[in-house]
User: What shape does this take?
Amino acid sequence: MGFRVHHLNCGTLCPRSSRWVNGTGGLLEAGRLVCHCLIVETNDGLALVDTGLGTADVEGERGRLPPPFRFIANPVLKLGETASSQLRRLGFRKEDVRHVVITHLDLDHAGGLSDFPAAAVHLHEVEYIAATQLATRHEKARYRPAQWAHGPKWKPHARGGDRWMGFDSVRPLAGTTDDVLLVPLFGHSRGHSGVAVKTAGGWLLHAGDAYFAHDEIHRARPSCPPALARFQSLVAFDDTARRNNQERLRELAARSDSGVTILCSHDPSEFDEVATSSRERERRASRPPPAL
Assistant: This one.
């Protein structure tokens, strides 16, 4: 059957210059990016894929969102966009989230961890080591330990595993009958990974920050707005690995027989399309059958 998936935007970002960030609009017009997260209804409770910004981030708790991020990303900071608030609107409780699966621990992906202290937090062990040991100046600058000062129930996934759709060392999330997979996509951060979910319509691959704009992997001639292209190169832990994984994602996206839908964390057009389609499917499923 496959798992049911809900698409959430858990943090709207409005960087300056829509033209440079979104490829359209004015130079001085605010852009729009999203923090695309997933709620997966598994056979072992709910799994949240990334958390976006959390309650403490929105409320301005000390040590969470540094001034450079606030200035450059210009986050909207609405409590109603946090994953915990959106779960309630969907009819779930925070306690229903048994698992959080993190693509990587950058502040706009891990801010909501403290909203789900009882959940097991799954991530690649390379990312866990990078964020908790802070071995390089680059990593000291990118991670915000205040976001996990509550002491999450870490479940680092070890190196090694199976091959899936051309990617190596893929590991399943325990308790999900191998229908939720952690897919290493190193480069953006040291242990950055994608998350694949088996749904009724095929596989969904949340590629995190492996790319930022839809046209980077879904066009024969890839393109990316200049501000996003520059940002990706600047913040990458290993830019060569990042580019290699983008190429593998392009190859997968071009395969008509794969049955895999690929999406990323921040492209608003991707989010709007899949969220609208998901809501329409839910409306159709909830309609009463026609009278005989």
User: Anything to note?
Assistant: The two ends are 28 Å apart (CA to CA). The chain has a mean pLDDT of 94. The chain has one domain: 4-285.
